[in-house]
């Protein structure tokens, strides 16, 4: 399950892919210019992704870095 | 004295009182003064880490950047989020190593990892130099607040001096506990004020956020997307990455890692902090609204966008509350920065070079250095004319050069040698210094390059030089070490 940590790559790809493929103010998302709305969505998704990682992370569950 | 200034003064006094109360409960030795005795739970560490993003940079810098440049300001929303993703994996490792070896500062950490006190001195120097523009921007922000809230009665220079004096006083009487408690008050205030302004101003002037953006898009076509060159897409991607990687490299951010009680604190924070920093969105909304409502601010004056639009929209008492929130956002990070700079200088540069200096002498020197650092920051804030974002990005270009070496040191088998670490940091910093001092850009240096490469942030370009130097020098020195070991064995 260590692989679950690779989910953390998604925010890096997600954040940049939208603006790179579609560098434009329109269409508006959530009432915001396209890129800004895209980033806001990815901020929310990132929090969700980090929650999933936290939940399933074997390193955290093993408490490897915590004081013994 | 008008009501706005009175409210701002009251907020300042409140912060000072909180500082005194926090201090009186604890004896201050070196560990107390700088790492809060390593006893902070999730709540306080959260506020210290979160507190660092809600600085004058957010409040005045981000809104001014949106006001003056448009789309490039979007990067601010991206970089903190990505930094927290990195923090999930990186901070627990740093924390547990520091704890196991009783390390209290960033230079200690590097020195211990590479078994090289000299590397600690180099890291300390890079840290202190990077902190200067960061401090200058807090003072610049404080100056703008006092100047605007006094409706011009207090001139710029005097405003900056007053701001710097308050931060200095605050640091001297409080130490890090003061920072943590004031951070609570500060965050509540900044979030309420930012959310209010971000909601209210677009509705007040345009009837809603979406209508506001439509108006901006009509009045300034292209403003809400990235330009073809200059601060283009590749500027956006490289700047976001540079600042995300550098986020925890500041001596004071690195220092707040040590204040945690356990490593779990950071993992939980990595989930919540991306949401917490969404407040930044409201600040950007204020900037975009201001671009049509109070047009005409140019150059460094874009820093004033948020306050100008507030003055236009509200009575003085409301400007006072906004200004008070602004003062606190400069006070908390400003105090952390000043404390870090002086502690690092005293402990990791002077004491490390002299050797055998007592802890008391180090603390005394650090306290003596606080006003010195303030004067330096004050000087640059008065003579300088940079935008707040430009100042922050300059600091980031320097401080992120510590990132590659740090990552090497956290790997199970450190691929970098001591010499490689030196070479990498020096190559990175030298590249930034060259580009900054010579006002050089990749475009001027090699005009034939496509825009995609030309627009890359110089700090990011320097990271390549940095990594290349680490790889080459480590390969050379690691080989020699193996050869020596072999000779010894024969």
Q: Can you put this structure into words, describing what you see?
A:
The complex is a heterodimer of chains A (68) and B (490). Helices cover 60% and strands 0% of the residues of chain A. By secondary structure, chain A is mainly α. In chain A, helix 1 (9-21) runs antiparallel to helix 2 (34-56). Chain B is mainly alpha-helical. Chain B is globular, with a radius of gyration of 23 Å. The model of chain B has no long low-confidence stretch (mean pLDDT 84).
Number of strands of chain B: 0
Low confidence ranges of chain B: none
Helix content of chain A: 55-70%
- Span between termini of chain A: 23 Å
Shape verdict of chain B:
globular
Shape descriptor of chain A reads: elongated
Pair with the biggest interface = A-B, 36 and 44 residues
Estimate percent helicity of chain B: over 70%
Succession of helices and strands of chain B: HHHHHHHHHHHHHHHHHHHHHH
The major beta sheet of chain A can be summarized as: none
Number of helices of chain B: 22
Outline of the structure:
Chain A has 68 residues and is mostly helical.
Chart the SSEs and their pairings:
The complex is a heterodimer of chains A (68) and B (490).
Chain A: H1 9-21, H2 34-56, H3 58-62
Helix pairs in contact in A: 1-2
Chain B: H1 3-24, H2 30-35, H3 42-53, H4 56-69, H5 75-100, H6 106-113, H7 117-149, H8 156-206, H9 209-219, H10 233-246, H11 251-258, H12 264-276, H13 279-293, H14 305-313, H15 316-354, H16 359-383, H17 388-399, H18 403-410, H19 418-437, H20 442-445, H21 451-454, H22 458-489
Helix pairs in contact in B: 1-8, 1-15, 3-8, 3-12, 4-7, 4-13, 4-15, 5-10, 5-12, 6-7, 7-8, 7-15, 7-16, 7-17, 7-19, 8-9, 8-13, 8-15, 8-16, 9-13, 10-17, 13-14, 15-16, 17-19, 17-22, 19-22
Which features would summarize this protein structure in a list?
heterodimer, A: 68 residues, mainly alpha, 60% helix, elongated, B: mainly alpha, 79% helix, globular
